[in-house]
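Q: Protein A?
A:
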Amino acid sequence: MKLVIILNNIYKLNLKIIIPIILLSIISIISIYSASIYTSPVLGNLALKQAIWYLIGIGLVVIIYRLGNNYIYDHTNILYIFGNILLLLLLIFGSEVNGSKCWFVLPGIGSFQPSEFVKIFLMIELAFLIHNFRVKYKKPSIKEEFIFIVQSLVILIIPSILTFLEPDTGAVLVYFVIYLFMMFTSGIRFRWFIIGILLLSIIIGTVLYLYFYQQDLFIKIFGNSMFYRFERVFDWKSGDGLQFNNAIASIGSSGLTGYGIKESPVYFPEASTDFIFAIYASTFGFIGVIILLIILFVLDFEIIKLARRKILDTDKFILSGILGMLLFQQIQNIGMTIGLLPITGITLPFVSYGGSSLLSYMILVGILINISRTKERKYKYK
């Protein structure tokens, strides 16, 4: 109790952020260890690796805490450009794994996935664009809003195209969710969202028509890779597939308290990454799932509370992007695991194995802590 008071009063650390992250780290390491019965020995001890990534992540949080968010904000444009350069280099020099060029393989260290960090760079770049727009135009005209929307779409589309070409559809979806959440807080007229929904409906309708009725033309335009990705979505609709069937069997048979660590009786691929929720539910059962959902809710709700405080607009926009990203990935990952949503390869934040993704989330934790330490933060906008 004394330690809690010291952390709150001296370092002004938000324990409603820190404690959920600590609990999620424990859940992550135990779940990955439990999944090791179905993980290839060639990959090594993933639970130990995840623990090391968490330690490195804590180091990043400390660095960001010491430097302050202003240091990151001052280099917004550089970070955004650097992220896109990495995505471009990935298409040229990236190592191909399962038909995708999503990673740089670093000998002796592991793989590095730039798209995980581009999410952060995209958030900050959009936050400053929205802030500058709101400062410049108190009551913007339709023309001024249109120009602003075009500018924001350019910022979104550049990394989206580069990431889509890898291909990494899951990351592109996250980019768009971040964009939508942040644009909802930008204050633009609601009619733009209606127009966007109509245009998106026309595009999706056209693509689906080609997929169902003009498959040769679809493949000619979009390629076999895109056709395969569509097949995965519609395989989900039929409720079939090894991953889906085995995940459902594993979760459904786990009961109140689960089978225990390393006792899951059902095999499925990607147990430590995409389907970590199935392993966790199989290990700890219904009670464990409820505990995990409560932890996620506490973290998400605290971000909402932060956004409602009297803080800088830029921080509010970044918080909306973080919240959108976390909510989408939580819902999508758990939803696809229990058969409610299509399988997209999107991981569960702070729980699924992955060095790049975990470090990117820990960077966001550092930003969250800095935002929450004081009610008012001074920053000179450019």
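Q: Protein B?
A:
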Amino acid sequence: MIKQDKLTKINLYDKFNAAFVSLITPEMSELNKVRRQNNYSKQPTLKQPFEMPLEFVSIDGVKIRMAKSVIDSEQKETIVLLSAFPHTIVAYSPIWEKLKGDYNLYTYDLPGFGASETKTEYMSFKFQGNFLNTFLKHFNIENAHLVAPDVGMASALSYVINHKNNIKSLMIGDGPATLPTLEPSIMKKMVRSSFWRTMFVIAGSGALIESAKNLGNVRYVPNKYEISDYKKAHKGKVANAMKWFKKYPKALKEIDQNLENIQIPTKIFWGEYEAILYTENGINLNKRMPNSELEIFENCGHFVYQDDYPRFIKLIQHWVEKHK
């Protein structure tokens, strides 16, 4: 279940470090301007998450946290949602609540991210793609639709490139795209600077979560349950997470050189106000993938599935019904 007896809060140390990150991030001025226009406040958008059937399972020796809701595996469409960083699958709760009555749903925290266990060997695009293949086979999931923002996007693309599959459609965005990649300052620090990766490790999970909120949301305000879950889930895992970013440039080359070969119907989504990976990445990706459509989420930041979750729900519904 999502509710927690003892919540973990963002403390002064977390806020101080996140404030420093904001201070050295040029994109913050525009994000703050948009927030003021949106009357952004400290009041959470939702008082608490909707319930999700969270559980821990071990699949092929990898312990993950996941949730599933199967209403009719034969007649209903199946949707698999992959987690973003540094969120957890709890971030999907409003989407889950709306879709669970009409679709079979699966979601999991990627190995090495969220509340799933972490090991050095998990932190690569290829491992994540291989694990997605294992996950789908483990639950006998066929003809599914993949929803994969952020780091989940790398997993989904690696999977469809390297594995024989019967995926019906992809919904990907705000993640690793084409070369040359267009990176705002914070992404450059994580990808290209060992010094800054070390600084993020020292700052810890709380500063990471607070920074992600500052850089990734311009409309949605996470509630205390979400924040607590994100911080707890990533405690002690930031160092390993940074290894994923260190491998990012090399891993992206394999994705880039195979984009034209992906024939699966693909909906690409991107936030208008991106401070993690510029919107131009989504535009370039749309040009490269032969069977894709691009949807820009106006007045949204990096986490579009939160910032405008009602529209994101409609995107999933319309896209899945179109590609049944």
